[in-house]
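Lecture 7 notes: from sequence to structure.

We start with a single chain of 362 residues. Read the sequence below before looking at the structure.
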Amino acid sequence: MKTGPVHSLDAHYYTDPQIYRKELEGLLATTWQFAGHEAWLQKSGDYFCFEIAGQNLFCLRDQDGVVRAFYNVCQHRAHELLSDAGNARLIVCPYHAWTYELTGALRSGPNIRSVSGFHRDSVCLSSVRVESFLGFLFVNLDPDARPMDEWFPNAREELSAFVPNIKDLEPLEWVNVHENCNWKVSVENYSECYHCQLNHPTFSSGIIKADTYDIQPQGHCLRHTTECQNLEAMSYPVDLDANIHAGDYSSWFLWPLFSFQVYPGNVLNTYHWRPTDVDQVVVWRGWYTVGGEDSEVVRRLALQDRGTTVEEDIHLVESVQRGLNSRGYRPGPLVVDPACGVQSEHSIRVLQDWMRNAIEGY
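Now the structure, written as C-alpha cells:
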C-alpha cells in the first residue's frame, strides 16, 4: 500500500489544559515515576516527601529496613502528615495526633477507645507501589501496574554493565532547570539528536561522535547509543581502560518522565521531568559518584553541561512552545529514515505514538 509521510502531533496536544488534566489523571498516575534515591533513606525512620500526578506522597524506611511509599494524608480528617525530609520513629499527624507505625498501621489516637465499634486495625495509611531500580526509587499510583522490568526490558542489566558500581552511587549534585514549555516538547527534544550538530557544538564535538548516534525502542524505553569523541577532542579526561564501556555513551529514557544517561568514562547522570502546568516543566538534573564523594571531573562536567547543552535546549524548547501557539503552524512531516541514525526522527514517531495513545486511551 502506498503511504505518505508521518506528521507530528497537532499543536493542541501541547497547549490544551484539558489534555494536560487527562495526563495527570491517566498517564502520570499509571506509569512508573521517579520519587528519589535510596541514599536519602539510610536509617530506619528516614523519609522524604514528593509529588506525583498532583498527589502528595512520601517514602520511608521502616524498622525492618523495608522501603515503603504512602499517600501523605491522615486517615482521620485528611491533614497532611509529613513535610520535606527527616527522620521519625512514628508518624504523628500534626492536627489531632493520630499516630501511625512506620508500616502505616494506626497505633493510637486521643480518646479513640471511647468510639463504640471502632477497631484500630481497620485504619492504615494508603500505600503506593514502590520499586528500587538500582537504588533509584520509583512509584506507581496504579496498584495493578506491571513491574518496571516488564516496562523497560534489559535496562537494569544494561545499566549495570555501563556503570558497574551503580548500586554504590549517591547523588553529588542536583540542578533544577525551569522551562516554559509543555513537558512533551522537552521530552521530544531530548529523544532525538537530529538537532544536535547544529545546536549543541560542545556535546557533538567534545563528548560524542554525532554520526554514530542512534535511538531504538526497548519496550517503553528509548535506548540512545553512540561512541565517545576522539580522546584529544574530549572536553574532559576519560580512561578507556577503566571499563569495557568507558568509551561509550548511552541513555535509557524511561517513558514518560525519566532518563538514565551515561557519559563516556561511565559517568552517570539523570534527567527527571516534573510537569507543573500545561506549559511549564522543571527538569531535575542529577549527577552521581560513589558514596556521593566530591569529584572535580564530575562537577566540571555538570557545570559544562549546564552552560552548554542545557542552556541551548532551554531556548529551543521555549521557541517550539511559542510556535505551537502560532495560528500559522501546521504539523510537518517527521523525517523517518528506514536506516535510522542521527539524521532520522524515527524515535519521535515512537514517542508520539505513546503520547497519542496515552490521551486517546483515557
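The chain has two domains: 33-140, 151-360. Keep this in mind for problem set 3.
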